[in-house]
Amino acid sequence: MSNIVYKIVSKVNWSNFIKSGIKECKGFDNDLTDGFIHLSTHDQLYSTFIKKYNNENKNKYNLLAVDLEQSEDVKWEKAKNGNIYPHLYSPLILDKNIIWVHDLENYQFNANGI
Which end of the chain is more exposed for a tag (fewer CB within 10 A), N or C? Predict the structure, then answer.
């Protein structure tokens, strides 16, 4: 499995996190409720966006590339749909785990990912 995975996050949440000056992120929205950070592989991005974000306007979201090699407590777990997703049970560290952040609007989804 790849060491690079992805996180879709609203621009509002990401902006608030950056403005806070905090360097460790415990996640957003359902991550905080579920107790882990929901991540997706490249091939899972399209289905994640459709299911979790109801195919909303992509210009409301950022896409984060996350380096799992620099992460602790990653578990690959089966979801209700039977797919195996990466779940991070430790915080994302801004300067350590985040490779890049892009506007999701600039990506074209297809059935195989982005």
Answer: N
